[in-house]
Amino acid sequence: MAFGGVAMVLGVLLGIGEASSPGSYTNVQFTWLKLAPSPGPFPSGFELVMGTLVDPISALVLVVVTVVGFLVLLYSIGYMHHDRGLPRYYAELSLFLAAMSGLVISNNLLEFFLFWELVGLCSYLLIGFYYEKPSAASAAKEAFLVTRVGDVMFLLGIFLFFFVYATKGPAGTGGWAASGFVFVHGAAPFVPVGTGNATLLTIAGIMILGGAAGKSAQFPLHVWLPDAMEGPTTVSALIHAATMVAAGVYLLAVTSLFLGFTALDQTVIVAIGGFTAFFAATMALVHPDIKRVIAYSTVSQLGYMVLAVGAGFTMVGLFHLFTHAFFKALLFLAAGSVIHAVGTQDLFKMGGLRKKMRLTSAAFAIGGLALAGIPPFAGFWSKDDILSSVYSTLPSHPAYWPAFLLAFAAVFLTAYYIFRAWFLAFSGDKPRDPALEHAHEGPWVMAVPLVVLSAVAIGGGLLVYLPGFAGLLLHGGGTPGIPPTLSPTDLLLSTASVLLAVGGILLAWRLWGNGRVAPLPSSSAVRSVRQVLLARYGMKAAYDWIGTKGVYTLARGADFFDRFVIDGTVHGFERTFGGLSDRLRRIQTGVVSDYASYVVAGLIAVFALMLLLAPYLLSRLGGA
Amino acid sequence: MSSLFDLAGTFAPELVLLAGALLVFLLDVLKLRRLELVGSVSVGASLLALALVVADLGFAPFASLRTLSAAQVNPSLSALATPLWTFTSLGLVFQGMFLLATLLVSVASLSRGSKETGGPIFFGLLLLATLGMLLVAISSDLIFLLLAIELSSIATYVLVGYTRRGLRPLEAAMKFYIIGAVSSALSFFGASLLFGAYGTTNLLAIREVAGTVGTPILALLGYAFLLSGLAFKATLVPFHAWAVDVYDGAPSDVSAFLAGGTKKVGIFAVLLVFLGPILFAGAGGSSNPFQGGPFTLGPILQVTLGTLAVVTMTVGNVLALLQKEMKRLLAYSSISQAGYMLLGVTIGTAPAIAGATFQVLAHVLMKGGAFLVVAGVAGLGIGPLVDDWRGLGSRRPLLSVAFALLLLSLAGVPLTIGFVSKFVLFSAAVQAQGFFVWLAVAGLLNSALSVFYYARVLKVIYFEAPPAPLPTGGAVVGGAGPEPLRAGGLGIGRAVAIGVATALVVALGVDPQPLLGPIQAAASHFVFFWR
User: Could you tell me if B306 and B346 are in contact, meaning their C-beta atoms sit under 8 angstroms apart?
Assistant: First the structure.
């Protein structure tokens, strides 16, 4: 707790420090392993370094991580007080915060990957915090396995980039190999962006995207995040909303700044981001579980960030990462407050909680308004910046049109689903389930984080007009989209999106306001759509099917292979080596004259080697 | 180099050890045989010598090089003007590592218990053996080199059997002595053949003429004999058979010294003898000894050494897989590690020699530490079988963690020194390209193979239930713990030695650069000198 506080103070100080001297880089590193230059594949040597790099964007994300981390730790005192295993909880949460901070300030990709794996491990442990619940245990496994697919792709991506850039780099540095995978060289990207084998770079970029998609729950690797809600709500707020899932976006940002994506990569990233933003929002429309609605919303919002980074507006994406971290953590903590009070996550059992929990209801509403993108709340500035930035590229990149339209439509869905949740939980006279009558606010440790986060969710977006803060988002010479432009087109676009959002809220009010429960639609078409959405488009079932049938078949094949080929070989080896070893062991007679004769035999063998085998080998190999 | 005083300064570390050994024997004569007393002399002498060597390295960093010939010592021997001793920086690094091994073993042996007799013999011989090892590291003449090896060997023959209790140590000592004698004979015969081929036994002089003068067959025969003799010391297969019986039969502290210290004498001797001809570019002559004309020895020697290295690591690992006794397992693993070191010598480039040197350093710490743990565990009343170690993890947590770290390092897990040394070594092999890439592949496959038996030991220690309650109580003293020395406990000296070895294994794995950098510099200087 105290450590969390210190970390927050340090993090914010770092952020202020960076903001006061925009564009400064502090790179501290030491060489872990160094191979001296010598002729061969790496003429300038090879280095592995460990180091920290504090630059504007890492300072920005560090502020997010430490502030939200501290608030969540504070909130946990109230939320988790009745839980067993608190030492485990705080240990794992602290390990997560340390790993996440390490990830943010890594100065090279290998170190980044190490911390990336570490946050993945913490996520696994914390999703499975209630490991005695089978659903929690299986959700933890699912999260681990699905993100693992991404991790493997990420590692392949690093290797591919390394393969291309190993010997390329600024003059006098000897290339990426000799500089230990570091991102920066002074204030400039280390690796010359976009030089090298285009095909390989495209594949490398796709691999990095795969890693990011796994961590940030982008289509088609999004399935684990809603199930990750099995963990404590505090964990969902910190790891699965504000920080860890944003690591994927951060990875894309770092990669785009320091390594660069090819045009084809960008198109794919934009498409994935835009599609995920819409696709996840649709699934949030009908879900009865308050946490899962917010989880789908997280997937959808991460889609916006990916879209922005893909379209080349890295900083706009990070701006949304910043605002989203706060208002989404707010939504989760507010939801946690509700769950803490009523003991259920089913929206249809709640209702009328506004009167019993005024602070929570206000906080949730503020978070919802920010999420829906209503000015002047934080989400409006960043989300609108994304939309208008992407819109500005449409003339030159017609391939971005579908993604843009999907993301634009998702604004309406977002406003609808989040206010559906609000109306269901808070509006009306009394809870639909009478057992929830006794609901009340949590202790002050839970209230303080809600208030602080609400403040940021209201005003955080306007920070972008502060020169110092904007400096955190400026990278090198000028960044498109920061601060948001205010041309007539942008204003028109903003007006349209705000109108869409308001429309969504109104629809939610019409259907669910004042404690109404809209009857299930009668027409079979709507009903079946609802079913499809609740079944998550069948993707979960499909993955399960792939898991059980496909992988099982594969596993049987592998098992066959394992038994007959590998085991056969291994047992063959064992028999061979066993026999050999047995024979060799019999050589170890313990009789000293035998040993002496081995020495003589060895001498003869060495001489034969020199006279016969070596010249033969040398003539075949053409010299050693 | 005229005055005796200068001479004493040049050989200061060696003289310190000699004085220490003589003092120990003097104390023995005076019946002052307390283990702590003679042990302290040994610790002090090796520490002082180590400080002198490090200071020498520090004051004369890597560029300067001293040579010394018999003629310089005694002007009447003007015929012997070629350097008998050459103080290279790499030689000094090896001296430092030898002294480190001696120091660890001495400190650990302080805890052998006052009942133990023969303390003066043990420590005195330890210092004499170390003196021989130091002389090996600075020799540049075959005869002097072989004599220095003899000095260390004869001391260790006696060390193995010094307790005079039980048949096993005595049997081991006898075997060691007989095979050692055969090997010495081979070495000296090889040296005389080389003298026949080249007209000199001076390694620097041979380097000048190797490949251009002499009869190829005679030289090859000489090298074959010499290699067979030195391979005994370095435990290369098939000259290794003694090592398992001796490591197993000797007191574990002596095994730690043999595996951690004297084996590297063989490696460095092979390096000294073979680096010259390997690096000698020659007149570009043929490598076929049956053809006339100019002749290049290097590639033939490289193929021979490379084959020997691969055979050594493979046989060592395969046999380690099936061992049921802890000491024999460690002995075979030690044999396979010698193969890795020989790999670096074979390649003969500066990075490869740096890798081999770092591997030697790693092995001093890992294997020395591991044998010290074995010795300590034997003192706790645990049997010699791997299965006797069941459940040690819960009974002796600190000791088990140390042993686990040492084994993980032997297996080459990252963030331990074992990973760094293998990484440096194998990447040097890959950089050398050609034939050597295959050596790297063989080394990697062998590392994978070795993980199996290390993992098996870890599994036994941590995941199997203890066989029966441990007869002795008492917690393990970790590092500088306040636990008093007690019967059945580890003893402070041993705990300190194990703690230091383990700490260095991890520290140098986390940040190898402070030592790796100087070793790389020393290696490139050494290669430059021998080219």
Answer: yes
- DSSP of B90-156: HHHHHHHHHHHHHHHHHHHHGGG-TT---HHHHHHHHHHHHHHHHHHHHB-BHHHHHHHHHHHHHHH
Q: Tokens 């649709």 correspond to what residue?
A: A282
The maximal CA–CA distance of chain B, rounded, in angstroms, is 73
- pLDDT tens per residue, range A417-469: 888 888 888 877 777 777 777 777 777 888 888 888 888 888 877 777 766 66
How far is Cα B293 from Cα A548, in angstroms, rounded to an integer? 72
**Residue A542: partners with Cβ closer than 8 Å, 6 or more residues away:** none
ipTM: 0.78
Query: Looking at the complex, does the CB of residue B215 fall below 8 Å from at least one CB of chain A?
Result: no
Amino acid sitting at position B325? E
Q: CB–CB of A475/A59 below 8 Å?
A: no
Question: What does DSSP assign to residue A31?
Answer: E
Type and span of the H or E element at B201 = none
Asked if B371 contacts B328 with a C-beta cutoff of 8 angstroms, the reply is: no
Closest CA to A300 of A327, A319, A272: A272
Q: Which of residues 432-461 of B touch A (CB under 8 A)?
A: 432-436
Q: Which of A31, A34, A38, A600 to substitute to test the interface with B, most B CBs within 10 Å?
A: A38
| A194 Rama class: left (phi>0) / alpha (psi -120 to 50) / beta | left
Dump strand ranges (E) for A96-212.
Answer: 184-185, 188-189
Instruction: Tell me the shortest Cα–Cα distance from A606 to chain B, in angstroms.
Output: 6
CA-CA distance, B438 to A248, in Å (whole number)?
39
Give the residue among A185, A246, A174 at the shortest CA–CA distance from A216: A246
DSSP letter for each residue of A442-473: --HHHHHHHHHHHHHHHHGGGGGGSHHHHHHH
Q: What is the pLDDT of residues A240-276, one digit of tens each?
A: 888 888 888 888 888 887 777 888 888 888 888 888 8
What is the C-alpha to C-alpha distance for residues A623 and A69, in angstroms, rounded to an integer? 62
Contact A427, A298 (CB under 8 A): no
Q: Which of A32, A584, A589 to mutate to test the interface with B (most CBs of B within 10 A)?
A: A32
Residue B517 Cα to chain centre, angstroms = 21
Element (H, E) at B86: strand B83-87
Using an 8 Å CB-CB cutoff, list chain A residues near B516: 33-34
CA angle B386, B391, B392 (to 5 degrees): 75
Per the CB < 8 A criterion, the answer to whether A433 and A344 are in contact is: yes
A342, A439 Cβ separation under 8 angstroms: yes
**pLDDT (tens digit per residue) in B82-91:** 788 888 888 9
- For residue A503, the tally of other CB atoms under 10 A from its CB is 14
Judged by DSSP in three states, B302 sits in: helix
Element (H, E) at A311: none
Of the candidates A36, A605, A613, which has its C-beta nearest B350's C-beta?
Answer: A36
Q: What residue segments make up the domains of chain B, in order of their start?
A: 4-67+81-468+487-530
Token code pair at residue B516: 């790796």
Q: Is A614 helix (H, G, I), strand (E, B) or coil?
A: helix
Q: Which of A135-139, A361-365, A410-414, B303-307 has the lowest mean pLDDT?
A: A135-139
**Contact call for residues A364 and A419 (beta carbons, < 8 A):** no
What is the pairing mode between strands A188-189 and A184-185?
antiparallel
CA neighbor of B137 nearest in space, from B364, B359, B357: B357
d(CA A287, CA A303): 19
Q: Encoding tokens for residue B422? A: 């293998």
Residue B148 pLDDT: 94
Question: Cα separation of A107 and A47, whole Å?
Answer: 14
**What is the bridge-based pairing of β-strands A46-54 and A26-35?**
antiparallel
Type of residue at A554: L
- What lies within 8 Å, CB to CB, of A612 at 6+ separation is none
- The interaxial angle of helices A488-512 and A378-393, nearest 10 deg, is 130
